[in-house]
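Session log. Operator J.P. requested a structure for one protein chain; no other inputs attached. Running the standard single-chain path with token output.
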Amino acid sequence: MKPRECRARVEAVRRLSPEILEVDLRMEEPAALEFDAGQWVSVPFGPKTVRAYSIASTPQSPKVLTLCADVAPAGIGSEWFRGLEPGDQVRFKGPLGGFVFTRADPRCPLFVAEEIGIVPIRSMLTWLYATGFGRPATLAYWARDPDWLVYDAEFRSLVRRYPGFAYHPAVASTSDGPSDGASGLAAAVDRLVPDVTRRVAYVCGGESMIHRVRDVLVAKGLDRKSVKWEKFW
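Structure written below.
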């Protein structure tokens, strides 16, 4: 879909953890925004200053978009997101981004997320399983502590309802937990994917983690182009 200038109004604000907020935006212009699961919107803060926010909701609800953000950095975008209240008008451009799931791809997907990098993957997984996705899929998800495993309950629910979905969360704060996302997720992928035949990977989070995970998969024989990624920091 071609990106366009949009206007929406804040409908609800939720605090998922001390530093992670979720905001529902009801579309006004256009009345509904078509997008692909995994895409994002761009919010302007000046002529050359914009911030990107991934869409956490699915294409099934084009009239109300849900954005989710880590507001810990306390920069211009974080302060703006913290200040949103129901009734506020928001202008943005979207949809943007190519980190989207190709439904026609017959391969089994591996999803890898580091902390707030889960947002576009949450959109993909929720959309896939709500629309009859029948193939096995695996999610490896790392965070510094349980508060940063946002959407953990949703993924556990998917496991109960869909036998083909495997979920592997890990937190650094446990005694045996990996100390950082790059090493933790690289080790998890190495363990979870003994064979890369008919595999495709979707990886989202920090640059270091993306490189480490991609290196593990390529070393196992996966083509580099089969590792789709989106860098959040």
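Operator note: DSSP finds five helices and eleven strands in the chain.
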